[in-house]
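In this supplementary section we document a worked example of the pipeline. Step one takes a protein sequence of length 217 as its only input; no multiple sequence alignment statistics are reported here. Step two produces a three-dimensional model, which step three serialises into structure tokens for compact storage. The input and output of this example are shown verbatim.
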Amino acid sequence: MNLARTDIGGTGDTTTSIGFGGGQAGVYSNCEKFGTANVYTWATTSGVLTARRLFAGCGDINSTLAIGGETLGGAAYSSSCEKWSGSSWATTSGVLTSKGYHTACGTTSAALCIDGNSGLMSNTVELFNGSTWATTASINNSTSQLASCGTTPDSLVFGGTTGAYVAITDKFNGTSWTTTSSMNVARGLFGGCGTTASALSFGGDSGTGSGMTTTEK
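The serialised model returned by step three reads:
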């Protein structure tokens, strides 16, 4: 990428993707796209309206949500939600609970915002219908630094911390959550992608304070 940073939001696939916000020496609004017009490099584009880090993103390169996050150093969490149209960002309805370290999955018309930290770890889940957020069934554990994948009627949430790193995996059927097979390695601050039938978890921290290369399917 053109701007070095951590705690970035992003979505897309290996050929077209978008990365936004994050932090390093401050909190950034910078947004970059990868794979535009079959050119496989990063190019800077319109930044998010509110500089944030530790937030969640979902959707694709042409239609993305940037949800919540931290606007300043030290637990200044936001409820702000912005929508990317493929060329610019616009404010849309904010989540009901300001939070960071959460996860999100789905699309800009049907998204889940799951768990996270709003000062205390939470098990709340919110559902976006394309215009407003509403509370839906809570997940089984209050967790932050977790990952997710899938769609609003068929999603997985895995790993994170409940005070210690966990390998727990929960599955959502659109109505309720059930615990399913755990990952092999407990971890947080990692990535996840795919579907409930074929998912990846990769990288993260297992409690050693250093990054991991471990990938599970």
